[in-house]
Amino acid sequence: MSARINPNAVIIVVNSVKPKAIFFDLDETLIENKIPVPKLFARMYFDFETSLGIENQAAFFESLRANAANLWATMFERDEAPESQFVACFATSIAAINAVPATEQHTLAQAMFDRFLELSANNVVFHHDALQTLQDLQSQGYITGIITNGMERVQLGKINKLDLYHKVDHVIVSAQARAHKPHKPVFDLALTRANVAPHQAWQIGDHALNDVAGAIRAGMSGVFYDPSQQRRERAFDDIPERPTHIISSLNEVLSLTQ
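Given the sequence above, the corresponding structure tokens read:
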């Protein structure tokens, strides 16, 4: 199967070879959320509604979205840990609605972040064939790993909840490389930990740019995971790279490696 190709695009294709290491994206690839993340944030707010006020919810989240977007773009430009920066986003949003005294804002922000971590970790389940695919790949001698964007405490909370540390060989969170996918340093860190050359590794994920194009730019093979079979036609319209393979279920990886 192939993605729809924009006739005006410059096409970059990487030939696939049998891999030694196979890495997976985390969210919406190996795992999925039980409820959407916006509803998770709403549940978090509800837990602090007495302090914040039900009437302030919309204004709080408007501020938080703006602050979080800026954080994502700049978090590695600062020495402060990303988690501390995110707590500061909560504190700024609390200040914006003027619901609690300034002396209480940071303490409340920390409590909200901790509650979000708890809710996030308990909101994930495996995609239906993810666990069996990981087990089958390891039984066949492949190095397996996760390359995921995000803050360590958020992503590792999910990974620990599902005991993924014992189901893959390597876990790489973008914060450890101080660079998000699709940027090369996070893929380089994964390759170093697995002790494999770029052409010996695959990255599998649902994001055309972050997972597929990012991996290919790092010299790896990029496998596009499209379980709905509805995104492949347009996902690469504005990206010069083309997926090495396209799959609609994770267990298809097993046949591709033969």
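The first strand starts at residue 21 and ends at 24. Try to locate this feature in the token string yourself.
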